[in-house]
Amino acid sequence: MMENHQKAKLEEIIKAKIDEMKETISSYEELTKPVAPDNAIGRLTRMEAINSKSMNEAALKRAKFTLSKLERALARIDTPDFGLCRECEEPIPFARLMILPEASLCVRCAENLSG
Description:
It is a single chain. By secondary structure, this protein is mainly alpha-helical. It has a single domain, classed as Four Helix Bundle (Hemerythrin (Met), subunit A), CATH 1.20.120.910. The protein is built from 4 helices and no strands. The protein has helices at residues 4-31, 46-76, 94-99, 107-114. The longest helix is centred in the middle third of the chain and has 31 residues, at 46-76.
């Protein structure tokens, strides 16, 4: 069972990561605006700009997914099963949650699922 001061610390970290992720998403949204047909950004050719845009779109998608997981973690932080692995139901180590507060699997189950 996680102690209250640990939950408070995690909640602080989750909120900070959510703010950071929202800024990241905003940056990627700027980078994924349509590329004008006659637009050569500095020395970039149009094809390079389009390729760069598609890489930024993939990064934007990952950032939005991470934000979603962080928001779910924040919503669940006061539930009794927060911090428990969704596979084996054992407590996820606090150190792992400090690094990845959106984690829903312990290291062993995460490794097992990733192959």
